[in-house]
Amino acid sequence: MTDQGIIDGQSHLSPADQAILVRLPPDGRYYTENLVSIDGDYRLTAIKGLDGDVLITGLPLSGMQSTLRKVEIAELVAFSAALVLAGIIGTGFVRLSLRPLRRVAATATRVTQLPLASGEVTLAERVPDISPRTEAGQVAEAFNRMLGHVEAALARRAASEARLRRFAADASHELRTPLAAIRGYAELALRNPDADPADIAHALRGWSRSRPG
Question: Is residue 68 situated within a structural domain?
Answer without folding.
Answer: no
